[in-house]
Amino acid sequence: MKKGLLIFLLANSMLCFSQKKEMAEAMKNKNYQKAISLGYKLLSENPDDFEINLGMSMVYNGYSDHKNALFYSEKLEKLAQQDWEYCWAFIQLMRTHYEVGNNIVSRGYYTKAKNNKGTKNADLELNYLGRLLGFDTMYDSWRTIETANIIFHFEGSINQDKINEIVKSRQNSFIKINDFFNSKLPKKIDFFVWNSEDSYNSFLNKKLGFANPIYCIAHNRLNQSSGHEIAHNISFWSGNYKKNQTKFVNEGIAVCFDLNSDDKFKIAKEVYKIHPIDIKKTWQENLEIDEDILYPISGAFVQYLIKYDKEKFLTLNDNQTYENAKKIYGDKIDSLINDFTATLKE
Asked: Average pLDDT, whole number, for the chain?
């Protein structure tokens, strides 16, 4: 979504320019409520302004508000007159339909977008989404297997025994994890498996594995844990999907539910002895900590919170900030942090 923000700089009047720029900044900072409020104000004066409607479509797609995203995306197609406008309209329609599981329709809009000359930013966005969602021609040789909750996409060179193992274990992982979260996902998880044990993927220009829960999607290394990326997708759609996530809690969830048969507290204790961190500060300030340190400690802490009170933790999952934890747990959250830290020091 960030790649499309520069089109707002084409505004005609200084006032409209300022408001569009403010809306773009709100979108960039994921302050969706502010962006929506500004969008409605702008549309009350210019209801058929293509750029404003594009902004609204982007916001609602980013907000996972599928009904409004579809409304504005379809409106874009009606308003479009030039190739670059059709390209952006088709990109938004592609996103909206993919988010609710209409993959065939979504792929059709991908093709339409490719056939219209877009802006530089539109082309970058389309290229990124084509690779993320599996529409790029590179995936033509991949194998697809569908289960009750997951659509698997396997790189063609992965052998059948490995495919069978992954399909069985990941489908079972989905059931086990969702038994805890009881989430209602808008579509099956598109689960891409690369025939690689390397963390960096040059085609995606990103480290594997990762999840993008808005699209219910995951890209995985061959040797990943069965639950980590599935947990990211499931936990996102538990409770209020308009999440306020922190890295400490969000990654802690994925580690806690990776379904590895390890002693998470023991591993966290070993890591903490070498790399002690201030848990409260790390959480409250959303500090960037090396994954080898953050993941085991946050995973054990999430496990600790769940054992203390499952329902309180599920409430925390919607808004994962320390400040919200204070509202949910009261002063007890500080005692829990201190007690957990003390046990790590033993």
From this structure: 92
